[in-house]
Amino acid sequence: MSIDLPLHRLLLDQWDRPADEDDETMLSRCTGPTLDVGCGPGRLTVALAGQGLVVLGIDVVSGAVGRTRERGGAALRRDVFETLPGEGRWETALLADGNVGIGGDPVALLRRLREVLDPRGRVVAEVAPPGTPHTVDWATLECDDERHVIRWSVVGIEDVDRIAHEAGLAVVERLRSGERWFAVLEEAA
Ligand SMILES: C[S@@+](CC[C@H](N)C(=O)[O-])C[C@H]1O[C@@H](n2cnc3c(N)ncnc32)[C@H](O)[C@@H]1O
User: Fold this and answer.
1) Which of these, 172, 178, 179, 135, lies nearest to 156 by C-alpha position?
2) Residue nearest to atom 6 of ligand 1 (CA)
3) Which residue among 99, 114, 155, 178 sits deepest, i.e. has the most Cβ atoms within 10 Å of its Cβ?
4) Residue 64: CB within 6 Å of ligand 1?
5) Domains of the chain by range and CATH?
6) Which residue ranges of the chain lie beneath pLDDT 70?
7) What is the average pLDDT score of the chain?
8) pLDDT score for 1
9) Atom of ligand 1 nearest to the CA of 61
10) pTM of the model
11) Residues 50, 27: Cα–Cα separation, whole Å
């Protein structure tokens, strides 16, 4: 496989911290049964479960799934593009920390999430700040001695309307907390 630099380096230890005030802004938009897509070590899966939501974390890295379970969260080792439990019935899909970039094709990811969600459901996505160009390249995922190379995309708040529209969704809310930016997407009318 040839890889165009630059590579984003996603060290899963970076996501071991507990949910903070900025995370809470995003979590407050999650309602009903929630799929935490690319849950990493599960800090947000566990925070949502602590708020009484039914939540399942999914991740391609087995170490991440193990850590989520160790901290008490429900998690499966699963690629979001593979068959998932409860397809068509999830109320929220959470794409925290730039996970709208999973797979390197945000439109394809959002279309996939439309299959996974109840038609009245929503995507809660963390995006990059204004002025961030839309890019598609590669990332390495590193967790203990596991290492995966994946396609990765960066989506800024200014690109989210276009990407949502192409996927058949609409942006119904934009939020900022500190330096972090979020968008809530629902089925387009
Ligand atoms: C930026 S980290 C986010 C961690 C976590 N959401 C958080 O905010 O604490 C990205 C995560 O997405 C996972 N991931 C990447 N591609 C995936 C895929 N196709 N399906 C499911 N998870 C994936 C990675 O293994 C990694 O744990």
Assistant:
1) 135
2) 39
3) 155
4) yes
5) 7-187 (3.40.50.150)
6) 1-6
7) 93
8) 40
9) 25
10) 0.95
11) 11
Nearest protein CA to atom 1 of ligand 1, as residue: 97
d(CA 58, CA 90): 13
For the Cβ of 113 lying below 6 angstroms from any atom of ligand 1, the answer is: no
Q: What is the pLDDT of residue 41?
A: 92
Q: In the chain, which residue ranges form alpha helices assigned H by DSSP? A: 21-27, 43-50, 62-70, 106-116, 160-167
Burial (0-12, 13-18, 19+ Cβ within 10 Å), 172:
middle
Q: Could you give the angle at the alpha carbon of 151 between the alpha carbons of 112 and 69, nearest 5°? A: 70
Q: Which helix (H) or strand (E) holds 102?
A: none
- The answer to whether 67 and 16 are in contact (CB under 8 A) is yes
Is the CB of 61 inside a 6 Å radius of any atom of ligand 1?
yes
Q: Is 133 exposed, middle or buried (0-12, 13-18, 19+ CB in 10 A)?
A: exposed
State residue 89's pLDDT score. 98
| 10, 126, 182, best to mutate for ligand 1 pocket (most atoms within 8 Å of CB) | 10
Q: Whose CA is nearest to atom 2 of ligand 1?
A: 40
Residue 109 beta carbon below 6 angstroms from any ligand 1 atom: no
